[in-house]
Fold these 4 entries.
Entry 1:
Amino acid sequence: MTAFVFPSVSITGTGLFTPPESISNAELAASLTASVEKWNGAHAAEIEAGTVEARSAPDEAFIVKASGIESRYVMEKSGVLDPDRMRPRLETRTEDQLGIQAEMALPAIREALAQAGRQGSDVDAVIVGCSNLQRAYPAVAVEIQDALGAGGWAYDMNVACSSATFSIQAAVDALRNGSAKCVVVVNPEITSGHNNFELRDFHFIFGDACTALVLERTDAVVADGLGDVAHRWEVLGTKLATQFSNNIRNDFGFLNSAEVDERDPHEVVFRQNGQMVFREVCPMVAHHITTHLAALDLDASAVRRFWLHQANLKMNQLIAKGVLGRVPDNDEAPVILNEYANTSSAGSVIAFHKHRADLDAGQLGVICSFGAGYSVGSVIVRKS
């Protein structure tokens, strides 16, 4: 009996939208310092009585040492840096205006389509994967589908920071089973909207960005002769895993207004137990990548480059060390979080987008994302 062989799928283009405004660590630390001083002053009596804990001022040097982050891009910075607001100041859009996540997505998608030699009308599936969606429905993906002039189907999905790799596997599956011919995976991460800029432990972590990928059946790409082969990467395998944990959490949701007890505002934005996340996620991800490579009869030494989720420099170094047996250099595991910060699901794709052109045909790479859930996804690719 002849064994069934799955059709080959390739990434044929990538795109990146970088927001127009950037915030340095110095700017961020200055705004939080002013906010903390004002808050502590307003709650001086409670702090003195021991019923309220004083907020801690930020440390600019600590940010780089703890995370490797030096700056971040945001869709709107004046509100973030306003000590009386500490969140973006976004204009309310009417129903007939393009949504902000669709607006972020379109430039990234068009860049990816140009690399692939495709147009919006060639697309027959759009998957939006990101940490937070601006509304419940209609799906942002359907709005993007309409703006692109694409056909087929579209949907949103959320697996937090792993949304990109989970979306890639969904796209690969759709292409292999014939339910799509040209899939766009897009990750419009406006993380500044769910970050907690009021507390020292969280205020520096996130930045905004949007990435896009075009995926197609390899045989169709070759037959059509479209796109630039320099941008083509065959997907050798995908692997996903989840394990429940409360150590990274955001409780914002449509049921908040129906709950009997009013929530602390800090519960409906990002929060985490950073030490536990570091301790539990790093070995989980290293094991995930190692076993994924082994399942494809590949050794870690054969991997030319690791494009890892850009959350924390020390985490990435420890994960890569768990796979390679040593700390990688920046060429093996490139870093973009110093400029972009943690862009949630977009981070690993930004690294892939910016640091893949120098690889030779036949060389291997691993795209890997991980985060809340816990969740981890890996995509092993080979340069065409």
Entry 2:
Amino acid sequence: MSALSGTVLGLLAVLESLAEFIGAHGSIPRLFADATSQAGPHGSAAGVQFAMVVGLLCLCTALPLVFLRPLAAGITVTAASLGSLLIFETLTLAGFAAQLVAQYRLGRSGSLLPAGLLGTLFLVLALTGPDDTDYRIRVVLVAALAPLAAFVGLVARSNEQNRQHSAIREVMDGTQWENAARGERVRIVRELHDVVGHHISMIAVQAETARMATAGMPAEGAERLLGIGDTARAALTEMRRLLGVLREDTESVTGGDRRPQPDLGQLHELLDEARKASATSIRLILSGSPSALDPGIELAAYRIVQESLTNARKHATGAAVDVELTYADEALHVRVRDNGPGPPPDRATGGHGLLGMRERASAVGGDVHTGSAFGGGGFVVEARFPTKAAQTP
């Protein structure tokens, strides 16, 4: 409630009370004369004090709404209203309105118990007060409308909370859809890089291998194979540039659909395909007892092996590769090692292959380490994936 409206309501209560007393005594001098005659020798001072008490009591029926919190204002306004009814057997219309506003504010703030107790006081006063008709009407109206005002305040509070909750739900739903869309974009980026990049790299490697390994090939055929390799590499570069643009908006998202396409059961086909493409030795070494794992883990492991073989063909052409799968009780260990020259110290780190491996492993609770292999040189990719038993709290 604003200061201006509260002050106006208090002044109206004062003026209304004075008007009622003037109507009862005929004039202001007669009012003070009656107060003076009742007070004895000190009548003049008593008249002034009487006027001050009336004015202060009327102000207290409305002015606390401006300066006090709902509970304190409700108690103060109710006490002033009860005092006016008990002492002067009346309640101004401004005080009546202020009492309803106080009850409404209590309901709006959620203070239902204080609102009910304060409203009950007027009901008791209506049952035990004088039999004056005007007095009865005013007290009964306050006792009946005070709970209604508190209920209206409670309804307004509930509506406001519902609007706030609806706004929050809309924001959360929008954020959820946005995260789902960004997660889908991440999945598409990974699949494009892993699948399309893998096959384009194979085209480039096969064209180069055919050009170098075919004896007596006409110059025109060699030139066409060279053009095929150059075109494949250019397509791979453009695809990576496009994926880089997509990744800029999805760098912070590591979720996405974890349902796999391939799994470790198709690993032999992947290795056979890589052997044909590079004409190099690729061994598969299995340790432990193979068992069915979570589909997301098998997909991530398959993609990491696929990416590692692609990197070996590009950066260690002709090098032998060992792919090791170790099934332990609590984890699956994947190790892909080649006997090539290893990563050069000045090699750029802006590609998405190694980053994609780490993201895939992290999405299923695993981790990936890459670097130079010890004992014989080459490059090694090591990944560890916790099994379902290890992931259970």
Entry 3:
Amino acid sequence: MKTISLLLILLAIFTLSVNAQNSDTEDWISLFNGVDLEGWTIKITDSELGVNLNETFIVEDSMLRIRYNKYKSFNNNFGHLYYHTPFSYYKLSFDYRFVGEQLTGGASWNVRNSGIMLHSQSAESNEFGQHFPVSIELQLLGGLDQGERSTANVCTPGTAVETNGMVNYDHCINSKSKTYNGDQWVHCEAIVMGGDYMTFIVEGDTVLHFKKPQIGGGFISNKEGAVDWNNYGVERDEELWMAKDGEILTEGYIALQAESHPIDFKNIKLLNLCGCKDPKAKNYKSYFITNDQSKCKY
């Protein structure tokens, strides 16, 4: 009898130990499977939803590549590739590199320029001719061998962020990253805390931090001198977005950007920080920031 009791005690201790280890193991999700575009939706300016105009987005050698080999000219065909699931609290990790030359017709400011849109509107909600989704852009810039050019900046199509305790309506805010010239791979991360704050990290260095991502800025503004919505292909939903001016963005979609310069992405992974926070559940994780009781498994 004592032997059985001892075994039960040891089993309980072992179970608690395993559960504790499991609670700390990070379950990263691979957003890109390295084989095809499963789970992603394409929206390119002046093209229907799901149309991969001129094979802009391709998968090759386990990389997600943005290419313009079948274009004659860019013609404002801004493209975005959306992951199908919206997220709120998470960590995003990826590698990118710029390659080759910019497509003819692209603007000078789009040389070695791309980005990842965070807290974005869905692919389906974009208008037919819309250039950019309402979102927070983690802007990616490559060096031009002409001095400093930071990457992991924040740009704000239809949005704004808070810096130094005030809403900052500058369209782009530079990070303090190094300059990365040539066709080298660069590792980048984003920590996204719902509507509280975002932090951008490049090669292990924290390069930018801002708070309260929100609707209202750029082409969503009632302020004098604001850019006309029609310049960005938005006609149908202008009043809808204007009514949301100042609304904090707490979640949204992730989208890769195509802006006329070839770029490669790989190792696109996400750690969801929203999940079951009940320690009694099998899928409890100690690192979850917000609770989603519907995800608990017992």
Entry 4:
Amino acid sequence: MRPWTQVPPQQGRRFVITGSNGGLGLETARILGSRGAEIVLACRSREKAEAAARRVPGHDKGRVEVRQVDVSDLDSVRSFARALLADGRPVDVLVNNAGVLGVPHAVTPEGVEMHFATNYLGHFLLTRLLLPALTDRVVIVSSREHRSGRIDLDDLGWQRRPYRPFQAYGDSKLAGLLFMRELDRRLRADGSPVRAVAAHPGASATAITSGSGHPVVTAVGHYGQRLVGMPAWRGALCTVYAATMDVEGGAYVGPHGRTELWGWPAPARMSRRAEDEVLARALWERSVALTGG
């Protein structure tokens, strides 16, 4: 397959990217910034985001902005969205990228486990709050591991089941794809010009396991991905493709290789569960209840 690196010019387009102080999020911002985009780095750590902003093309021209948000904290998401909407400027693309992997068991005040809260529920709320300002699309960053997902809507806090962090991660990534598909169905039904799409980076060298709290898990994630994975910028190209190219709503983009671990952006394969419309609607209603309507 011919390598895809020809990102269209993005002058005048504004992108909000969560979790963009490092890894895939930062590389996504760097690629888009190099094509003239305006970037909002939406990050939990303002200090890290300020340092990252200096690495994004266009920061010296005022095209890169830092705003603080912790997507695992719904109050933080609400505050972020209020402030962003208050400036009255449209957002062309929202990239829901922030994520955690392999973290110790923890439960939010809403009673949901931390992978689910960070990778999915905070982005669910953020997307719904920002919809009035969105002009083009929402991009959900998912994972091949969504195929292992088994969402238990009656035990989102893993209170009854033995906690398995990598299963919880897969569940959260499945939730993101279900959300994307249901959101796109609802947008089309409303006649909205906004579309919802998703992407996954295959095996990309990032520091996503750094919050695991377990030295072995962190080391395997850190060194293993560097040995067998693509550079982060290559993985980020799938997100950029989904964010900038003329793909249909509901599309899913990933590396073109046979196992989708490596390669250039191409249509990716979803699991049957990710296409389950009944589960998607049930998850949507449960998420509305958890986020306060």
